[in-house]
Amino acid sequence: GKGKISEMTFKDARRLDFGSWVSEKYIGEKIPTFEEFISFCRNAGLYPYIELKKGLTPERAEMLMGLVKRYGMFGKVTWISFFAESLVYIQALDSKARLGFLTERFSEKDVHTAVKLKNDENEVFIDSKYTLVNAKTVKMCMDAGVPLEVWTIDTEKEIVALDPYVNGITSDNLIAGQVLCENIMSE
User: Fold this and answer.
1) Do 111 and 124 meet the contact criterion of CB atoms below 8 Å apart?
2) Could you give the C-alpha distances from 34 to 27, 159, 182, in angstroms and in order?
3) HEC sequence for the chain
4) Given a cut of 70, is residue 147 above it in pLDDT?
């Protein structure tokens, strides 16, 4: 297929092959529905990060949360978004929800947003583009008591070089804990 998936209907996207670019083994793989995805996570024992896109409505958030509950995944997911309003909708449905505020710029405003999302029952963290993590941004998080995770690191060298304050890493092709453990064992 060609074109932007954001400009396709789900029905159109469902007709496309999402696996052949990976390997012949996955030829014919279809894009899953959210329900298929959350069911797979439950059956495989996975703890998913669910990214909420722009335009999420309270009704849509309620539908997503309903599926998470229906499949026994309540309290076993992390909700992330570039849009604080989307995280607020989730928090209204689950005051204990683990929330990650995504950022591509990393400012004091981002840290303030994360602090505002925090309550007495939940965990809220900044989820930053890894290239923005430096002494200044780590200090902002530390001073505010906001945990810090990063996305998307795809080399072992970049993982090993991260500040130790970073407590979560998203990668497309590496298992960060394995990389860090192997690095410690080789020293």
Assistant:
1) no
2) 21, 30, 35
3) CCCCHHHCCHHHHHCCCCCCCCCHHHCCCCCCCHHHHHHHHHHHCCCCEEEECCCCCHHHHHHHHHHHHHCCCCCCCEEEECCHHHHHHHHHHCCCCEEEEEECCCCHHHHHHHHHHCCCCCCEEEEEEHHHCCHHHHHHHHHHCCCEEEECCCCHHHHHCCCCCEEEECCCCCCHHHHHHHHHHHC
4) yes
Residue 14 has a pLDDT of 95
Phi, psi angles (nearest 5°) of residue 60: -70, -40
Q: State both tokens at 21.
A: 């670019």
- Return d(Cα 100, Cα 70) in angstroms, integer: 23
Query: What global pTM score does this model have?
Result: 0.91
- Average pLDDT, stretch 8-13? 94
Sequence-distant (6+) residues with CB within 8 A of 13 are 1, 5, 31
Which residues are registered as beta bridge partners of 80?
A: 51, 100
Residue type, 102: L
148: nearest Cα among 157, 159, 137:
137
What's the CA gap between 136 and 104, in Å, rounded?
15
User: Does residue 53 contact residue 85 with C-beta atoms inside 8 Å?
Assistant: no
Tokens matching residue 46: 């996975």
